[in-house]
Amino acid sequence: MTTTPGTQQHATTAERLWTYDAVRVRQSGAETQVRLTAEDIAEYAACAQNPDPRYTMPDPGTDAPRKMAMPTMALTYAPLLRDEIAEANGFVAQERSVTARRQTPFAKCEIRWYRPVYAGETLTGTRRVHEKYERRGSKFVTFRVSAFDEAGAVVASYDYTCIFEYSAGQRAVPEQAGEAALAPDTNAIPDPAQFLTWETARAGTPLPRTLAVGESTENILRKNAHRLAGQPSESNIHTDEEFARQNIFGGAVNAGPATMSYVDRFLGLNFPPEALYNGGALLMRAITPFRAGDVVTFSGEITGAGGNLYGQRKAQVRIRGVNQRDELVSLSDATVTFA
Asked: What are phi and psi of 304, to 5 degrees?
């Protein structure tokens, strides 16, 4: 069989690209180990634009409790590292190709938590291909990543879905950011008096607080640089405008995990962190790109409440993130638990 130089087939032969057809369920990458520090936790919170004192560094000389990580930090202390999964299986990730480079962007992610994680813990991350499927002309790959503590118990796991091949077409880049209905809530911190309780968690009840988050190029770069394991990615659709213009979003956008951290911050204004950490879950779907200059307002409501087989009281929450152009940026569903 011959191949024509410059074609996808030629590039795949030359580099053994990890295309959708080359992906196999159960392909895995190497384990990672991260010893989490209070500084790591504070930097993650800063990237999430979260001033909540539970996650920031204490003043010198103060007697502060052991620092707890934001729930969505699971995506950082046990990162996906799909480029390295490709390499471990003898392939070149499409993002690292020199002949047919393209992105495999975020589509959705679901995280499940089993207990809080604290500074000083050593966490082991595992990662593998969980499933692959086609829908409406696009091809998706879902990875399962799990984080374990030093005793071998799982503390969190997540399913992260990427678009490996997308149907024809590209999203238009807005010519103007548009006027924001609200200024970003840069200083919003939790007030336990405003937390929703089991007694008030009824279907149709709106969450007490909203949250407006502004994105910037500076913060996108800072988030990209905050890496606790794996090889750095200096050029991608979050940091390289020229490369980003060649991909599905038509320009640079923030990362899906960054938006998830903003949803995490929003939930933290309405529930204590234990609501997620004690058997909670969060599924976020990316709908419209979140670009530098955008302001997205998150709001939510209770969609259902009840118990489970373990006697826990749980509620389901729907969270919408809408930008200043009234576009739906993200749609999330969370399961929270009540003490």
From this structure: 180, 160
What are the tens digits of pLDDT across the range 222-272? 888 889 998 766 655 445 556 545 565 556 678 899 999 999 999 999 999
Q: How far, in Å, CA of 189 to CA of 121, rounded?
A: 26
- Residue 155 tokens read as 């503390």
Six token digits for residue 109: 């992610």
Spell out, as residue ranges, where the chain has pLDDT lower than 50.
1-12, 180, 237-238, 244
The separation between CA 284 and the C-alpha centre of its own chain, rounded to angstroms, equals: 8
Residue 93 and residue 18: Cα distance in Å, rounded?
5
Which residues does 210 contact at the CB level (< 8 Å), separation at least 6?
A: 266, 297, 298, 299
In which residue are the tokens 């809408």 written? Answer: 322
Closest CA to 72 of 33, 124, 112: 112
Q: What's the CATH fold of domain 8-338?
A: Thiol Ester Dehydrase; Chain A (3.10.129)
Q: Can you tell me whether residue 241 is helix, strand or coil? A: helix
Q: Return the domain boundaries, the chain.
A: 8-338
Give dist(CA 112, CA 331) in Å, integer.
Answer: 17
Q: Could you tell me if 250 and 173 are in contact, meaning their C-beta atoms sit under 8 angstroms apart? A: yes
What's the rounded Cα separation, in Å, for the pair 310 and 296? 37
Amino acid at 288: T
